[in-house]
Design a protein that fits this description.
By secondary structure, the protein is mostly beta strands. Helices cover about 5% and strands about 40% of the residues. It contains three helices and 22 strands. The strands form five sheets. The protein has a seven-stranded mixed beta sheet, with no helix packed on it.
Length: about 290
């Protein structure tokens, strides 16, 4: 999936009209993710054991506080970001730049803001084929109601401003209760810092039993650095993201260029040759 061909959704979630969140673009690259818009385009629908998504946001654009039931991992591809943890984002904050990776535990409110001066892009991995639905912080529901958005228990978003009607037999998603909020994890700034793997040169596992970030994810994530002319090894069944550089894939159909921001899913039965055209940094995800 080429970066230049990604199809964004501007109304994927209940916070899409909240002040500061209107301009965010959401992408479902592999699998449906947790989108609340049934019309969001899924680029690669085949199950992989995890989902791949993306978020592209201009400066000062916010992704509202929410919680996940499966792993959520972000690679900062471009831009500078702040991740805010807690119901109102005030428990802990971490700032991240290109090449940094954050793994946010389940059962914890998180949100993120582009704090840079340019448009930024986050490449994301969600655990399992069905990552479930997000739990929104109470304030998100209040803002959504003011702007004509209603979330159903099925996870479907109804836009009353656009003329959509809540089906008469539909159940509306209840707002998150104080008891639900209290059940979620609260972290300190020191704990939040341990969720981050800062970018560094070289090849190394990031999410793995022997990696920088450990835990039950259901997938591994590694950084692979290649010199010009070097071949990428052990890629069968992997998903690759080109963070820096350029490569060429050669298979029976001929050469295929891979450029910055592209995502490639390699079938388990395939072993194409991928060679770096220049010094490159690739992130590799594999199902465990």
């Amino acid at each position: 999936m080429r970066y230049v061909d990604l199809r964004p959704c501007y109304n994927a979630f209940i916070d899409c009209r909240s002040p500061g969140s209107e301009a965010k673009e959401n992408f479902t690259i592999i699998g449906p993710g947790v989108s609340e818009n049934p019309d969001q385009y899924v680029h690669i629908a085949e199950p992989h054991g995890f989902n791949i998504g993306g978020a592209r946001q201009p400066p000062a654009c916010v992704n509202s506080q929410h919680s996940h039931d499966t792993a959520e991992v972000f690679l900062v591809h471009t831009g500078h970001w702040r991740f805010d943890l807690g119901e109102k984002g005030q428990d802990a904050q971490v700032e991240m730049g290109p090449g940094d990776v954050i793994s946010i535990p389940t059962g914890m409110f998180r949100g993120f803001t582009n704090i840079g001066e340019d448009i930024g892009f986050l490449w994301a991995v969600l655990g399992q084929d069905d990552p479930g639905r997000v739990l929104w912080a109470p304030d998100v529901f209040k803002l959504a109601r003011k702007h004509g958005l209603v979330l159903l228990e099925t996870g479907q978003l109804i836009d009353t401003v656009a003329g959509q009607m809540v089906p008469p037999d539909a159940a509306i998603m209840p707002e998150t209760t104080a008891e639900q909020v209290a059940s979620l994890r609260v972290v300190t700034p020191a704990e939040a810092a341990s969720f981050v793997a800062k970018a560094k040169p070289g090849t190394y596992p990031i999410i793995h039993k022997d990696g920088i970030l450990r835990g039950e994810h259901g997938f591994s994530l590694s950084q692979v650095s290649l010199k010009a002319g070097q071949e990428l090894q052990e890629i069968a069944g992997a998903v690759l993201f080109v963070h820096r550089g350029a490569l060429t894939l050669t298979c029976e159909d001929g050469p295929l260029p891979l450029e910055i921001g592209d995502t490639l899913s390699v079938p388990r039965e395939e072993t194409p040759k991928i060679i770096a055209n220049q010094d490159s940094v690739i992130h590799v995800v594999k199902k465990l």
